[in-house]
């Protein structure tokens, strides 16, 4: 019957992709937050505190505001926001990495302070974009910043799923090093952990994970 086909179409094309996206994004952000808490040895640390998610959001908002003035082909339009969000998260991670370097070592306290400062800066950038946006872009930007899976589709799942699975697997592989870092960086180094390498790897893996999840 037509009604059964209609309901099946809604479930297959609307409900299931949104549910899968919700699971993937929640899973990715949970793993990212847990790894940053272990890295910083602080239960309050998360991608938002370090400015990574704000950097991803700011880059995506810039894309939303100016996309109406760009001639973006329909074939690549779904990929624009994920790419911009990842670029924003990656640039944030790069800046944090450079700001937190003290005598060639990544200092956790400086990392947290740099993240808080960048978080405030990106909030100002988002505010500026809100001022510059036209009515259509402002509505889309506001709707996007509030967060919604309403536009979720199988195409979004196919874009997001492979990247998040690879990045979260990379974070999961660092679980033993994270457990040893809880003993202190000096003790972990004596045990054989390449502390600085682990810090950089986790920072970039989190940038990739958060950038794609936010977009």
Which tags fit this structure?
single chain, 215 residues, mainly alpha, two-stranded antiparallel sheet, 2 strands
Descriptive account of the structure:
It is a single chain. This protein has 215 residues and is mainly alpha-helical. The chain has 9 helices and 2 strands; from the N terminus they run H-H-H-E-E-H-H-H-H-H-H. The longest helix has 39 residues, at 2-40. Strands 1-2 form a two-stranded antiparallel sheet.
Can you summarize this structure?
This protein is 78% helix and 2% strand.
Break the fold down into its secondary structure elements and pairings.
Layout: H1 2-40, H2 52-67, H3 77-99, E1 101-102, E2 105-106, H4 108-132, H5 135-146, H6 154-172, H7 175-181, H8 185-191, H9 195-214
Antiparallel strand pairs: 1-2
């Amino acid at each position: 019957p037509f009604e059964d086909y209609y309901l099946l179409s809604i479930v297959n094309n609307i409900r299931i992709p949104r549910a899968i996206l919700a699971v993937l994004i929640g899973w990715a952000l949970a793993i990212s937050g847990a790894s940053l808490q272990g890295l910083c040895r602080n239960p309050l640390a998360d991608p938002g505190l370090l400015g990574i998610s704000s950097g991803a959001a700011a880059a995506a908002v810039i894309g939303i505001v100016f996309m109406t003035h760009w001639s973006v082909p329909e074939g690549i339009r779904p990929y624009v926001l994920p790419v911009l969000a990842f670029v924003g998260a990656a640039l944030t991670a790069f800046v944090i990495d450079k700001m937190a370097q003290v005598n060639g070592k990544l200092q956790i306290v400086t990392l947290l302070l740099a993240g808080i400062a960048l978080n405030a800066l990106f909030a100002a950038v988002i505010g500026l974009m809100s001022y510059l946006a036209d009515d259509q872009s402002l509505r889309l930007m506001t709707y996007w910043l509030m967060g919604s899976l309403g536009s979720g589709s199988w195409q979004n799942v196919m874009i997001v799923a492979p990247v998040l699975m690879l990045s979260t697997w990379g974070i999961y592989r660092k679980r033993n090093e994270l457990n040893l870092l809880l003993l202190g960086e000096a003790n972990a180094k004596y045990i054989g952990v390449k502390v600085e390498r682990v810090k950089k790897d986790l920072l970039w893996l989190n940038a990739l994970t958060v950038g794609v999840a936010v977009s």
